[in-house]
Every structure is written in structure tokens, then in C-alpha cells.
Write a structure and sequence with these properties.
The protein has 142 residues and is α+β, with helices and mostly antiparallel strands. It contains four helices and five strands. A hairpin with a 4-residue loop joins strand 2 and strand 3. It is globular, with a radius of gyration of 18 Å.
């Protein structure tokens, strides 16, 4: 007797995300998207993907200190990962870290409003959002 393989039903879950932006001159309100931060409570994930496009940022402000921007943007990734070298914030729960990262700021590194999405499987959400919201066609990763 031949048995049919069991179908695995994936449960849809919600996730929250924000776009990480660099606003070189806050008074001008011009920005470049440099990353995404994704939080999914049910999948217990908090993840960030970043890419600093130097040419785009320097077009907005030629005197921008790119290395300082890069350090701050990479700190977001380390905080999401819970890297102990990222300071006290990185030791908080995932939910607390996400809320700290997305809190409104008037500094050069800001996040968009929080958006919500639905996925059946958390794998690939960060990559998909990153490609859609950060990378330009033809851009290369560092």
C-alpha cells in the first residue's frame, strides 16, 4: 500500500520592519535607505541587513564622514544579533532592541515608520525587503 506524503501546512505570521536611513543633513530631510530591520516575535527573529552606498550619500553631502556612518549602521546589525560588544542595548530582549532601534530620532541615522507584513515562512523576508527597499538595480554589495 502506497502512502501519500504528509503535506506541511505553513502558518502565516506577522512581522514588523523599518527601513534604516542616513539623513546626511537633517535640515534638508533628504535621505538614502541603507538597510532594513525585521522583527518577528513568533519566529523569534530580529535581523538587519545593511549596505552603505557611498556615492549616493556623498552626492547629498560631499563632506560626509562615510566611515563614521558605516560604524553606526553596522552597530545596528550587531545590536540585532545581540552581540555583547555592542553595549547594553544589545543585551535587551529582541522586542526591546527592536523598539529601541526604531524609536524616532532627529539624528543622521534614522528609521522609517514601522510597517507590518505577513509571511508563511520567515526565511527570505529580510533579503526580499533589502533588495526592494535598499539596493538599486546594478548595485553591488560590499
Amino acid at each position: 500500500m502506497k502512502t501519500e506524503p504528509k503535506k506541511i501546512e505553513l502558518k502565516s505570521v506577522s512581522f514588523d520592519y523599518a527601513v534604516l536611513r542616513v539623513v546626511p543633513r537633517v535640515e534638508r530631510e533628504e535621505f538614502v535607505n541603507v538597510g532594513v530591520i525585521v522583527f518577528c516575535l513568533e519566529h523569534r527573529t530580529l535581523e538587519a541587513r545593511v549596505h552603505v552606498d557611498e556615492a549616493r550619500l556623498l552626492a547629498l553631502w560631499p563632506g560626509l564622514d562615510i566611515e563614521t556612518v558605516r560604524q553606526h549602521v553596522l552597530a545596528v546589525v550587531r545590536i540585532c544579533e545581540g552581540d555583547e560588544t555592542a553595549g547594553a542595548i544589545a543585551q535587551l530582549s529582541q522586542r526591546e532592541r527592536f523598539h529601541w532601534l526604531i524609536s524616532p530620532r532627529s539624528t543622521m541615522i534614522q528609521t522609517s515608520a514601522v510597517h507590518t507584513g505577513i509571511c508563511a515562512d520567515g526565511d527570505g523576508v529580510v533579503d526580499r525587503l533589502f533588495r526592494q527597499l535598499v539596493l538599486r538595480e546594478g548595485s553591488t554589495m560590499e
